[in-house]
Amino acid sequence: MCNMDSIRDSKGLTEAEFLERYDPDKYPKPSLTADIVIFKVHDDGRDPEVLLIRRKGHPFIGHLALPGGFAERGETIETTAARELAEETGVNGLEMKLVGIYSRPGRDPRGWTVSAAYTATVKSDEINPVAGDDASDVCWATVTMTEGQVEVTLDGKSVIEELAFDHYEIISDACRCAALD
Fold first, then answer.
1. Which helix (H) or strand (E) holds 154?
2. Spatial CA neighbour of 145 closest among 99, 100, 180, 121
3. What is the DSSP code (8-state) at residue 165?
């Protein structure tokens, strides 16, 4: 086994010496968030639905969005996803699968934000979400896929333009990840 304390880099520093001098503020860091896409499937063949919240605060106040939020210091992103889902909808204990990482500059007007998006699928009577924390309301929107194009509707009307951030892109990717097409 290699003793890391005796190995020196090109500047003659051991790992301990390097870490002692390392400036963690040398590189700018993004905020880390999690977004959660919960699909509800029906045994009777109806189209699946996606769980959305109505945002209680800025940015995008009053807009529909996926449950989610910022990671806390020392928290894994998986823990962030579970915590935010519980805080905003009261839903706990779902096994979630990673959809992808979203990092497009400008995706969040508050600044540089990178999100890990997760998905889970539930049966129609498995959960009963209620609005909490940053959500003024929760709702289920119908999701349909036609020739690879995802449509999200509420009461028969498209809500794609009302979705906050890049949540339409995340929902579309989650549809493909969950094989809803």
1. strand 149-154
2. 180
3. T
d(CA 48, CA 101): 23
Q: Where are the domains positioned within the chain? A: 30-177
The CATH superfamily assigned to 30-177 is: Nucleoside Triphosphate Pyrophosphohydrolase (3.90.79.10)
Choosing from 151, 161, 162, 169, which is the catalytic residue?
A: 151
Q: How far apart are the C-alpha atoms of 174 and 99, rounded to whole Å? A: 6
CB 142 within 8 A of CB 180: no
Cα 44 from Cα 32, distance rounded (Å): 38
Task: Give tens-digit pLDDT for 68-116.
Answer: 999 999 999 999 999 999 999 999 999 999 999 999 999 999 999 999 9
pLDDT of residue 102: 98
Does 151 qualify as catalytic in the annotation?
Answer: yes
Residue located via tokens 């309301």: 137
Q: Is the dihedral of CA 90, 47, 171, 52 positive or negative?
A: negative
Main-chain phi, psi angles of 101, to 5 degrees? -110, 135
Residue 141 and residue 49 in contact, taking contact as beta carbons nearer than 8 Å: yes
